[in-house]
UniProtKB/TrEMBL annotation, chain A:
Listed PROSITE patterns: PROKAR_LIPOPROTEIN
This protein's record includes keyword S-adenosyl-L-methionine: no
One of the GO biological process terms: molybdate ion transport
Keywords carried by this UniProt record: Metal-binding, Molybdenum, Signal
GO molecular function list: metal ion binding; molybdate ion binding
Record-given protein name: Molybdate transport system substrate-binding protein
TrEMBL record, chain B:
Chief location of this protein within or outside the cell: membrane
GO molecular function: molybdate ion transmembrane transporter activity
Full protein name: Molybdenum transport system permease
Record key words, sorted: Cell membrane, Membrane, Molybdenum, Transmembrane, Transmembrane helix, Transport
Residues spanning the membrane: 20-46, 66-92, 104-126, 138-164, 250-269
Membrane topology of the entry: Multi-pass membrane protein
Cited Gene3D superfamilies: MetI-like (1.10.3720.10)
Biological source species: Pseudonocardia thermophila
Family: Belongs to the binding-protein-dependent transport system permease family. CysTW subfamily.
Record localization: Cell membrane
Keyword match Membrane: yes
Amino acid sequence: MRLRALAVAGVLLLLVGCGQGSGGSTGADSATLTVFAASSLRDTFTTIGEHFEATHPGTTVRFNFAGSSDLAQQIVQGAPADVFAAASDTTMKTVADAGRTATAPALFAKNALRIAVAPGNPKGIASFADLARPDLKVVVCAEGVPCGDAELKIEAVTGIDVQPVSEEPDVKSTLSKVQSGDADAGLVYVTDVAAAMGTVEGVAFPEAEQAVTDYPIAVVQDSGQAALAQEFVALVTGPAGQTVLQEAGFLAP
Amino acid sequence: MTTDRPAPRVRRSDDHARGVALPGLLWVPAAAAFALIALPVVGLVLRADWARLPDLLLSESALTALRLSLETAAISTVLCILLGGPLAAVLARGRKRWLRWIRPLVLLPLVLPPVVGGLALLLLLGRMGLLGRVLDTWFGITVPFTTAAVVLAQTFVALPFLVVSLEGALRTAGDRYEAVAATLGASPWLAFRRVTVPLVLPGLASGTVLAFARCMGEFGATIAFAGSLEGVTRTLPLLVYLERETDTDAAIALSLLIVVVAVLVIAIARPRGADGLR
């Protein structure tokens, strides 16, 4: 009987203990800044993070790169983030509506879609309209994912009906299907083509301007590092951060 | 806590009645293990939007995904039996020395992250893959992005579950009855059909259930190898992953649906399946 009570108490202690452990760790280490950023920002933010660490000795910048909506949900659920950089206004709005942003979101970059094709463009894809060709295997992002919503917007504006063979859950997944050669074309961001370093070729198309994605950044509510977080946001929106972003293909906000 | 006290005393005497001398200390990690399995599901149930549940589950995309999941998992499970059954028999009864090197390889899909399995399948059967290139140029067949790719991915990850359960059952059963059948003039094939197969049916049943359940839950290999398109390759787990991005309530409703299907599978198969596992 006593053992059973002990068992219950043990489980409760374990659960409570785990909760405290993960929640309290950020406050304890005062020199760590945790940045949640959209996966399309992986390369640029890693560079910016190194720059931040160099100018703030003793500070470590930790990144959590994932799909914007995933990150937004984690932050709403109380994940210990100091800064949130999203690849869409709607995901930032989710976080702001939940009262989890400490500052007004600042626009720091824009990104446009581009058609990713195999190097040398063997299928001769030259325009968005070409994507409706029946002989092509086209992959896009699914509806609800920022890159998918942008693609659907372009379809709506142009009246071109693309019949994809797959609607992928995120942009890197879309890119990988083109990289493996299983898809003839994929709709990804300009920055993804640049980051793919020659494994795919980008085909620009004028309609891409109809659906430009905004990238907002904000300090997260209850951040233990509010001042440091604000400085990171300033670096991203400032000239040094902008140079890194625009070299990677991002458009100025 | 105090009000709970009389109840454990009664249950404790039950333990004694069954004559089980279980070290009391085991209750602590056992309770923790059960909590770890059960509490997340409880969270799912509590967080579900029950008012919207019927609408969410009866949406066209949900029904399409459910149908696709059931169909592909059924086909994959049959493939697992047709291919994995003989493989288990060969592994358990075959006398070739090199078979000992085969067994660990059969377990690979069990320990590999499914997404690695999907990548491997893509490198074999993708349009640029070893075999896929031949299929594409000679026969005009491309496997990725088709329902067949979903079935292949599911069969790949589920095969070891069937093979391991069945091989265990075959080893436990031994081959004495088959030996007797042989002395009575039965051919190996007749003895296999009439003696071996009936003997290991419980093991086969449990393996089948495990394989089916694994097929229903398959995600990583499918997304990597087959992609995601409604009605063609978007099974229930893929739809959950996608809905999670936009509509958490829909994702939770679909997750509950998967839990219900899983509980049904376990309930239907338990009496024989549990025996086979022992």
